[in-house]
Amino acid sequence: MFIQTEDTPNPLSMKFIADRAVLGLDSSGRPAVGVDFPNEETAKISPLAAALFAIDGVSGVFLGPDFVTVTKAEGVDWAHIKPQVLGAIADLLTAGVPVIDKAAAAARPARKAATSIDDYEGDDREIVEQIIDLIDTRVRPAVAADGGDIAFQHWEPRTGVVFVSLHGSCSGCPSSTMTLKAGIENMLKHYVPEIAKVEAVA
Fold it and tell me: pTM here?
């Protein structure tokens, strides 16, 4: 198996791109929104994340549609843990073990779901469709290139605020606020004048 590695804007995180799907596509055929594992306890639903947390020095794991972002603890050298991370990813994906244990995941408290597009009507629904399309086609590929993910959460027509969630290396990256404001917010406001600002939610 071939696994390519890339640095991310977060110096503590590295992106590992395998030559096969990790989470793959969701039920609608779009790239699945990534899953964050900020600690070993949360990783119990994922054999891959659990195997990565077993490596001394790994402090966070993010599974994307076709990549894995690993965050190391401060003071740990990538040269010491990178070979082990590559081995764990290759072993699990080659073995064909499900990346997420669906039974365990079903028992886990779900993160706050995004507002459904069906909750909006008329012009608001058109705006939300536009926002989701822009995030999927223009923002997510750029954020994924940096080892993270972004998902639409909610649109507040009264205030013009769009709420999004950041995942993976983006959620702990020092430059994520600047990226959100200078990049994502400006782009969305350009195409959708009704947007006043973009805020990140946990």
Answer: 0.70
